[in-house]
Amino acid sequence: MTQTQKILVTGATGTVGRQVVAELLDRGHEVRALTRDAGKASFPAGVEVVEGDLTEPDGLAPALEGVTGLHLITFGGAAFSPLETGPRILELAKSARVRRVTVLHGGGPTPLEDAVRAGDGVDWTVLMPVEFMANALEWADGIVASGEVREPCVDRLSAMVHEGDIGAVAAVALTEEGHGGQEYVITGPDVLTVGDKVKTIAAAVSREITLVELTEEQAIAQWRAAGLPEDVIGFLLMAYGDTPEVGRTVSGTVEKVTGRPARTFTRWAAEHADAFTKRS
């Protein structure tokens, strides 16, 4: 166990941020969670909750006092726009003597990540997870209502990652030496098709689930009906039709960094079985 440290986690109410908080607590560290509305935030006992907005970095100075590590996201504000405030955030972090910074990769180049990579005086680590296992929650309503999953490109491959493992890699990089200047691609332990995922969920809930393969046209119509923007639909068509190699290759990062194997989709499905059996 490393010496107890205090870490500031931004994006702490998000899918990954909550896991970073949980992992740090499990490892015995102190956590300060940044949120834009502390009154609406719910965290485990022992977490210090502070209000702040990454789009207004000058207000972050008090939150940075006394912390040794900082976890950052690349988008901020109510509209989740790419943050342009990276240089100022890094300046404040260095003034506060923050030693280590992790940044959750946003899927492509972003101003904040560029600022982190260019910064000196802190050990930075870029976290680059592939598809989240939590994406399977998008199927929950269809499974509950009709016992179906309706998807295109069902043979596409994914080395999808448990969100807890992203949090675990972040927690190590934020509290231990040897991770500065690293870019970590974070995956699960297996490469799965859509059919593999559906079978795993079916086993977890002890129910037959039918996989219906959609044509591209049917998929586009379904996504539009769900309100997805056209640029997101275009990205999904590209990613599903020709998944980049990095998204379908097991990296081994979780075990290398944390010392234990990456968590399986079977485990994730068991942990989230209620989502596929109860109406939201």
From TrEMBL:
Residues 11-107 form the NAD(P)-binding domain. It comes from the Bacteria. It holds the Pfam family NAD_binding_10. This is SDR family oxidoreductase. It comes from Streptomyces tibetensis.
